[in-house]
Write a structure and sequence with these properties.
The structure is a single chain. This protein is of the alpha/beta class. It has two domains: 2-295, Vaccinia Virus protein VP39 (Rossmann fold); 304-358, Phenylalanyl-tRNA Synthetase, Chain B, domain 1. The longest helix is centred in the middle third of the chain and has 19 residues, at 172-190. The N and C termini lie far apart (58 Å). Helix content is 41%, strand content 22%. Bound molecules: S-adenosylmethionine (SAM) and zinc ion. Zinc ion binds at residues 233, 235-236, 238, 245, 247-248, 250. S-adenosylmethionine binds next to helix 2.
């Protein structure tokens, strides 16, 4: 069957992976690559690896819409054949090389400026080789569809795939994204590189993160300083670095190690927003909303899900905007969460929030 997406026409036959629902992810990835390129004189000389390319749509969009050179790789023979046809169809033979290898073998032996990992399920098996292959000052763009392993729904899988202790919490979406960032950062640190978050989002059943890579020792230390064990009370939903719950006095559960620093870079998101405005894409409105919501977030790790906390603590549900105003009036920073429609991000502790909610 033939399709059109962004500025690319392509075919995707039966048996070769293509998911039309990934369009939003690919639009935002084109915008992220354009934002990343905007700090450079030109796209010339930049080589992107689309390591798990399927029919090649993602890498083709990078070549056509961002002007970079791309290596499109897939371990499947039929996928590689299809990618070759799609390269010819879009007349980008000079910019695109097609490979048919295990992505890990390719990444161990070659170096890239940008690496895109879009696997079935977990990216964990590819992280070490991506950390080896990525050049300093490069960018990693990584998808994970194994949300349960990252967000605490599947605790054993969290240990197995990522070596992180997880638990089901009311802030599970942001916890999942932070655990993905943690795993990428710790893997890069093992290879003496810092991976610094630029932008992340959740859509349908996947997480996606973009991270800047550097080999500066000071940046590696800065990232590692923000990777911590913290504690969660199942009964109250309280989280902090204290082992004893401030609200009910019980012993809390340790979680982590989890990255608790900033997960989005405002300047990068602003650049992405400008790029999205220029793209001729169907989901511009939704993509603009996602970026704007991300840029409006208060700088505080995780969030309080008002709906989940209302049933635990028996308070009447207030409008989220009213609670945000009340928190601000009490001197706290507060905003909605871009990752949870009923979440509030604030530097207030749960005890402060409950005091405000119960007096309303
Ligand atoms: C989710 S699909 C990629 C979708 C594509 N990036 C897109 O945007 O449409 C994952 C692809 O990874 C390929 N794959 C799986 N394991 C691989 C490996 N070890 N090395 C290279 N490719 C692999 C599969 O054949 C499949 O085409
Ligand atoms: Zn408690």
């Amino acid at each position: 069957m033939s399709f059109e997406e962004g500025k690319v026409n392509f075919i995707a036959s039966k048996g070769v992976f293509f998911n039309p629902e990934g369009e939003l992810c690919r639009d935002l990835s084109v915008a992220a690559l354009s934002a990343w390129l905007s700090g450079r004189k030109s796209a010339r000389g930049v080589v992107v690896l689309d390591a798990l390319a399927g029919c090649g749509i993602r890498g083709l969009r990078y070549a056509v819409e961002c002007g970079v050179s791309v290596v499109l790789n897939d371990v499947s023979k039929s996928a590689a054949r299809e990618i070759k046809k799609n390269v010819l169809l879009n007349k980008v033979k000079r910019k695109c090389k097609v490979r048919n290898e295990d992505a890990r073998k390719l990444m161990v032996s070659e170096r890239f400026d940008v690496i895109d990992l879009d696997p079935f399920g977990s990216p964990a098996p590819f992280l070490d080789t991506a950390a080896i292959s990525i050049k300093s000052n490069g960018m990693l763009a990584i998808t994970a569809t194994d949300e349960a392993a990252l967000n605490g729904s599947a605790q054993r899988a969290g240990i197995h795939k990522y070596g992180i202790v997880t638990r089901r919490t009311h802030f599970y979406t942001e916890l999942g994204i932070r655990n993905l960032i943690t795993s990428i950062s710790l893997t890069c640190a093992r290879h003496d590189k810092a991976a610094i978050p630029l932008f992340c989002f959740v859509d349908k059943h996947y997480y996606r993160v973009f991270m800047q890579v550097s080999d500066k020792k000071s940046q590696i230390s800065e990232i590692l300083k923000n990777i911590k064990i913290f504690y969660y009370c199942d009964k109250c939903g309280e989280f902090s670095d204290d082992f004893i719950c401030q609200i009910c006095g019980s012993k809390k559960h340790p979680l982590g190690p989890t990255y608790l620093g900033k997960i989005n870079d405002e300047h990068f998101c602003e650049k992405m927003l400008r790029c999205i405005q220029k793209l001729d894409v169907k989901m511009k409105e939704k993509e603009t909303k996602m970026l704007t919501a991300t840029m409006s977030e208060a700088d505080a790790p995780l969030y309080f899900d008002l709906h989940k906390l209302a049933s635990k603590h028996k308070f009447n549900l207030n409008k989220i905007s009213d609670v945000i105003e009340a928190l601000k009036a009490n001197g706290f920073s507060a905003s909605r969460s871009a990752l949870c429609p009923t979440g509030i991000k604030t530097n207030a502790r749960l005890a402060d929030l409950l005091k405000i909610l119960k007096t309303r």
